[in-house]
Amino acid sequence: MAPACRRKLLRLQSLAVLGAAALLSAKAAAETYDEDYLNQRLQVLAEEEFERQLALADEDAEEGKDDEEAEAEAPAAAAEEEEKKEEEAADTAAPAKEAEADEEEPAAKQPEKKPEHVAAPGVPKFPAPIPKKGVPAGVSLVIHDLDPEGDCGPAIASLCKSTEPGEGRFARCVRSAMSAAKARQDTVPVGAACRRIVRNFFVWVALEGSKPNPTISIDPVEGLRLTCRKDIDTLCDDASSKAVFTCLKDKKTKLSPACRHKVQRMQAHESADIDLDVDLSQACKDDLEICPNTTLPGARVACLRMNKKSLTEDCTAALFKRDKHDLEDIRLNLNVLQTCSKEVKKRCADVEAGEARILECLWSQMHTRSVDPFDPACKAKVEKLTEQSLSDYRLDFQVRTSCASDITNLCYKEKEEVDSMSIKNLFSADLDEVLFAEENPAGSVLHCLKEKSAEVKSPRCQVAVQRMVRVEAMQFGTDVKVMSACHNDVENWCPDSRREEIHTCLRMHMNDLSYQCRAEELLQGALESTDVRLKPQIFYTCKTAMDKFCRDVAPGASEMLHCLQDHRADAGFPAKCKTVVVTDMQANVQDYRLNTKLVRACKREIHGICKDFEEEGGKSMLECLSSNVKTITTPACHKQVKRYIRQGGENIHLSPQKRAKCESDILQFCTDVEPGTGSIHACLMEHRHEISKECANFEFDKTELEHSDISFSSIAEGKCKADITKYCKDTRSGEGRVWKCLEDNMDEDLSLECKSEVKKHMKLNHANFFLDSGLTKHCQADAKKLCAQHVTVAASKSFASRGALVACMIENRAKIGSHECKQAMHRMQQQRVQRNVLDPVAKEVCQADVQRVCPDEKEKGSGHVQKCLQENLKDLATDCQHKIHSYLVLASEDIRFKKSLMAACATALKTHCADVQIGEGRQVNCLLRNMEEADIDSNCQEHLADEAMWRAKNIEYNPQMKKNCNSDLLKLFETKKCQSNDVAGSKILCLSRHINEISKASCKYDVRQNMKRQSADVRNVPTMMQECKGDIDALCPGKAAGEGRVHECLRDQKSQVQSAKCYEIITEIEERAKNSATLNYNVRKKCRSETRRFCKDVEAGDSKILACLGLHRKEAGFSEGCTKALVKTELEKAIAKHPVQAGMDELKKYLSSHRGFFDKYGLILLAGTAGCVVMTGFVISFVVIRNKLWTPYNQMTVDTAAD
C-alpha cells in the first residue's frame, strides 16, 4: 500500500473511534473513494460533530465586571459558581469515542506532510489551523479581545452587553454563553464562524503565553494569575513566565483551594482542545500529522494515545505528563467522562473530584454486586485507566504523593533506573517487547513497594500498596512484572480463564509454574491473604454474607476472610459467595507461603521441626506442620495449623497431598460425590477396607487426630457445639476428653446429628486400637505383651485390624498390668456391653441373625436389636451366639456395665452395698441378696428381677458362683451327676440339686442365694419357663411373675399340670419350700421379723430355721401371717429332725427363769476378787524391791559422812 494511502487509513482509524467508522470502513474507503473525496467526507463529519460538541470546550460562566481586587478577595465563591456550570455542561456532553486498540497499526515511520485538502462542492470547509504567526482573524490586537466588528459582533452585542471589552473578556463571555446554552440543551446562540474565532482566540492566547517574552498577558482562565499569586511566589518562584502554568499543574495538590480551582478550569479547557495545551501540542507538532485535523473535544489526544508506539520521544514524554494529570482527575479525560457520566452521577456523586478519587470509586463500584448493572463501556474505560495508572509509579496519584519517602528509602535503585530512562524507551515499544522483557524496568518501583510492603512506614502509602494488590487481583497483568513473569504460564495453564480468575488458576497449578511466575504468585497471594478487601472477588461477592454472618468482625487482619470460611457451610450462606471462598481456599493451600498469617505464626516451627521442607516449600510444609501439630507449642501456630487441618477435613481438595494420594481411590469409589462437608472423606471411609494402603494411611492419620481432639473436626464440632456447651463446657480439649464426655452422655438428650457423630467415632475406636487416645497412651506395652500378633496389624494404620486387637485385650483383661490401661480397657468393655454393634466382628457375624430373628427391631435402634438377640440366644448361629454370650458374661462382672441397673438402684447401693468391692459381680450379688428388703423401691426391684432372670440362664453370668464352685462342679462332673455343658443353666440346676454335696462353703452360700431367687420367681429356675410355659398359660393366666405367685399357683393346681417335666420341676421346688424356711418365698416374706427375733443366731440350711420358727410359733409376738405360712411346710418333720435344738432351747428357758444370787452377780464378785489379789501382790512386790534398793544407798551415805 502506498504511504499516502496508509496515512489516510491511519486518519480514518482515528476518526472511526470518534464515530465516523459507522459511515465508512477504512478498507472500503481506500478501495472505493478517491483521496480528495475521502478527505471531504471526513471534514463534513468532523464539522457536524464540532457544531454539537464545541460548547463543551468552554465551561466558564460569564464573569462580572468586578475588578481584580474583588475577585482576589472572593475567589472561592466564583470558583464554586463556575465549577457548577462546568459540571452541568459536562453532563449533557456526548462522549468522544476513543481509538480502538485492535485497529491496524500506523506506520512506524513519520508520515510525510499532507497536501492541501480541496473541499467538494457544497461541503463546508474544515476550520483552518491557527496561523503560526500573527493574530487570528476576528481578533483585535488593540484590545486583546474579540473584534466587536467582526463575525462575533452579533454574539457580543446580544450576549455581552454589560461586559467591558479587552483582555479576552468578550471571548470568555461568548464561550460561557455557549456552555450555558449547551447545559440547558438550548440552541447555541453563536454562529459557526464566531465559534471558530473564539477557539482560535484562546489558542492564540495559549501560544503567546508560552513564548519566553510574551507580547500579551491574558490568563487562560480569568483571574488565574491574581488568584494564584501567592502560590506562584511560593511554589513556582524559579519558573519562567512560560513555565508558570506548567508548574501550577505539576504542583496542583499543594495549591490553595481557589488557585487549584482556577488551574482545574484551565486543564478542563486544555483537555477539550490539544492546541490549548501548548506543552503537548508543541511537543507533538509533527506527530499530530497522523491524526485528523479536528477540533472535536479530546479527539486528537485520543489519537496520539492510540498511536503511542509510533510517537517521537518528545511527544511521548509530553503525553506521559498529560496522562499523569488526566489520571489524577477523570474530568480531564473527556472521552472517559462522557462515557461514564451516568455512572459517576449514580454511584460516585458524593465523591470529591481530584486525587484519582472518582476513578477509584468507579473501580470499586463496578465490582460491587448490584441489581443495577454497571455500564460495560464505562467499565472498559475504567479498567484501562486503572491499568495505565499502575504502569508507572509517577502515573498513580496516591503512590506518587504518599509513597515518596518510602520509595526513596526502600526502592531507590529501581527509582533511579526508571527515572534515568526515557518514557519512550519505557512505554512505546510493542506489548511483547515491554511486558515480556525481564530487563525492562517498567513498573519496577511499584513492584518493589509490593515486595517490601511490610517495611512501608507511611500509612497512606500502605493504603496505596493495598490498592495495587487489590487491582492486580482483579486485573491480572496490571503489575507489569507479573505479566512478564507469567505470560507463558497463563498460556499453558489458564488460556480460557477470565482476567479476574487467572491468579486463582495459576495458584491451582503452583507446582507446574515457572520459577519466576511462582515467585510472583507467592508474593501476590501472600499480600492478598492479609485482608479480605485485597480479594475483591470475595469482598464484593460476599457483602451479604459478611453482613449476616460476620457483622462484628473487622475486615482487616484476615479475620473477615476466616469468618467467611468458617460459616461457608451454614444454612443461608449465599451460594455464589461459597463458591468463590472455596475456590480461593483450594488455590491458597497449594503453598504455605500463600498464608501470611501461618508463615508469621509458625516461623519457629518452619525453621525447626520442618526445616527439611523449607526449600521444598509448598504443600509439603503444610503436611509437615499437620503431622507435627501435637508437638507445636506456639499457640498462634497451633491455631493456624489446626485451621488448615479442619478445612482439609471438610473438603479433601483443601488438603492437596491427601487428595493426590487418594486420587485413584476417589475416581474408583467416589466419582459422583460432591466435595464439601466431609463427603469425600466419608465416602473413602465407607470403603476403607478397599482403598489403597497409601490413601488408607492418610485417612487413618486424619481420623486419629480428630479422635484425639474434636476441635480438629469442624464437622463433628459444629454438629455437637450445643451439646458440648451443655454437657462438656468444663472439659479440657485433647486426649479425646471431649469425645469421652459426649460418649458418657449418649443416653442424655444429645441432638440427633451429634449422637450420630459420636456413634461413628465409637465404632471406629472399637475397630482400631490406635484411634483411641486412651488405649494408645496407656495400653501399648500391655498390648505388645498380651496380643503381639495383633499389634503389628493394628500399627499399620490401614484399618486392617477390624477390632481384633481390642478384642484380644478384652479377652486378656485379667492379665493387664497397668492400672491406667485397665481403666481405658474398662471403658471399651463397658461400651461394647451396652452396644454390641461396636464390635466389628459381632456386627458382621450377627448380621444374618438380625435379619432372620429380629427384623422388626432394626427400625427401633441398635439397643432393641441387641436385646432381641440376647432373648433369642439359643436360636442364633454359633458365631453370633458366641459373641452375644461373651458380652453377657462381660456384663455380669461389673455393675458399671449395666447403666440402667446402676441408675435404678443407686440408693440401694449406697444403703446396702457401699462397702462392697466392685468387680466379679459383687455389687450385683449384694443387691440381689437385699432385693426383698422393704426399703428397696419397686424400680430397683424390677431391674433386679430382670438381672436374676439372666443369671439363671448360665453359670457364666454368675462370676462369683463360677469361681467359687469350680472345684465342686468338677467333682460332680467326675461322678456324672452334672453335665459339662451349660445348656439352659444346667450347671446351676445341678448345683442346686446337689447342694448338700458341695464342700466349699462359699460355693454353697452362692448356690443357696440362687435357690432363694428361684423360690421367688419361676423365671429364675433353669428350664422351668421353657418346660412349664403351656401349663402356666393354662393354669395361671395373667398371674405376674415374682413373689412366688406363679410357684404357688402351679403347686395349688399341680394335679392339672400336663407337662411331666414341668410337674417334676414343680415338685422339686415344692419340696425345697416345704423343708426350708429360706427357700420358701412365702415363709421368708411372712416370717421376716420372727426369723430375726427368734432365730437370728441359727445357721441356715437343713431346715434349721424352719425348726426354730416351729418351736417359737406359739410365743408372744409371733404373727398370724407367719403361722399360716408355716402350715404348708414340713414343720414337725423339721422339729423332729433337730431335737437337740429343741432341748437346748428348753434348757436356756429354765436357766433364765431359775437364776440365784451367784447366778446373777457371780461374775462381778469374781472380777472384784481377782482385782484385789492383783493389787495386794503389787503392794507387796513394791515394798520388797524398795528395801533391796535403798539399803546399799543408805550405807553409802553413812560412809560418806564418816569420811
Derived structural class: mainly alpha
Radius of gyration: 53 Å
Strand neighbour order, sheet with most strands: 1-2
Distance between the termini: 164 Å
Walk me through the topology.
Layout: H1 3-18, H2 26-32, H3 35-53, H4 68-73, H5 75-92, E1 139-140, E2 145-146, H6 153-159, H7 169-183, H8 192-209, H9 224-227, H10 229-235, H11 244-250, H12 257-272, H13 278-283, H14 299-306, H15 313-328, H16 334-347, H17 357-367, H18 376-389, H19 397-402, H20 404-410, H21 412-420, H22 423-427, H23 431-435, H24 444-451, H25 459-474, H26 480-493, H27 502-508, H28 515-528, H29 536-541, H30 543-549, H31 559-567, H32 575-588, H33 596-601, H34 603-607, H35 618-627, H36 635-650, H37 656-661, H38 663-669, H39 679-686, H40 693-708, H41 714-719, H42 721-727, H43 737-744, H44 752-767, H45 773-778, H46 780-786, H47 788-795, H48 804-811, H49 819-834, H50 840-845, H51 847-853, H52 862-871, H53 878-892, H54 899-904, H55 906-912, H56 922-929, H57 938-951, H58 959-964, H59 966-974, H60 986-993, H61 1001-1016, H62 1024-1035, H63 1045-1052, H64 1060-1075, H65 1081-1086, H66 1088-1094, H67 1104-1112, H68 1120-1127, H69 1131-1137, H70 1139-1153, H71 1157-1202
Helix pairs in contact: 1-2, 1-3, 5-7, 5-12, 7-8, 16-18, 17-18, 26-28, 27-32, 46-47, 49-53, 62-64, 67-69
